[in-house]
Structures are given as C-alpha cells and as structure tokens.
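Session log. Operator J.P. requested a structure for one protein chain; no other inputs attached. Running the standard single-chain path with token output.
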Amino acid sequence: MSYRIQDSDIQLLRKTGVSEDDIKHCIKVAEKALEIAQRTGGNTDMELIGRGALFHDLGKATTHEIEHGKIGAEMGKRLGLSQAITDIMEKHIRGGLTEDEARELGLPVKDYTLKTLEERIVIYADRLVDIIMDGVVIIKSELEAEERFEDILKDYPKYGKNEKTLNRYIGYHREIQKLISNKKGRVSPSPIPSHQGRGRY
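Structure written below.
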C-alpha cells in the first residue's frame, strides 16, 4: 500500500502549536520512514508509518523535555489518533525504554519497548533524520548517514545517549538494513562475468 503525507495532518500539527522547525523535522522523518519502509519490501502498514512519524513529536507543542512523548500521546488520543499511532508517539523516546529506564527518567513506569517493525522503522528514521539535519556530523548524502550510522552513534553521545540506547538503535539499524539487503537480493541482478570479483557489497 502506498501512502502520501496529508496536508490536513500537517495543518493539525500547526493548529496544536508545533513550531515550524519541529514540523519540518516531523515531515522529514515521515518521508524518511516511508522511504525506508518501501526499501525493506516488507508487508508494513504505510499509513501507520507515515502518520506515526509525522505525529511523533506532537508533544513538542507543549515541551521539548523528555516527557514530550507521553504528552504527545495524550494529545494524540484527544485528537482521535489511533492507539497504534499514539504508541509510536509515546515509545519513541530513547528508542523504546524498559520499565527500569522509565523509572530512572521519571516517566510513568511501564514497558515502552518497540514491538512492531513499523515502530522500529519510525524510530530508526527519527535518529537518521537527526544526523542528516542537525549539521553536527558532516555527511555528503543521506545514504552516508545510514552507512556510518553505527560509528556516528558511538562517536557522538548526542545520538547514542548511553550504552542501552546505543545498542537498541544499532539493533534496529542492523535489522532494517538486513531487510533492505534481502530485498535487493531478491531483485534479479545483472550477471557478473566470471573474471570479475564481487567486491564489497
């Protein structure tokens, strides 16, 4: 199923008070998440990915602190967004917290871990877009952000945060890149002459 970001959803972000900079980020995350989902070739819910990504930072209309995920999910429920979308909004903090981590951060104590591929694609796209748009790391292309993802997270605590968060994001990266590689592998490649090496894939 194809899905396009709806202008009415963008206007809803504006109406709730999300800043233009944050809206720009949300749109970019939605575009990146949809692109990644398409590249995985998986049987994913594209509308959930697109809308979950677009609304993930809705809580920043109120605060940019760590509780913006919880607040955004509450706002989303009042706006009539589905449980699956508000789950993404609530869980995206630090890539899906455990109960112990939530307790340490002063958030409602519950399991925020990511259960679906749709959730993981959105959260992965969110971190990639931070790298692409922040300007902290010099990259020549968006693909380079994916290729250097693990090293960037390890080298810049801004993105990796701590060991638990870092390992979660690396896990999502490896899972999703494997799906992308497998899809590429299903496409009939051009024959490689026997005298040529395959090189680095």
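Operator note: The radius of gyration is 18 Å.
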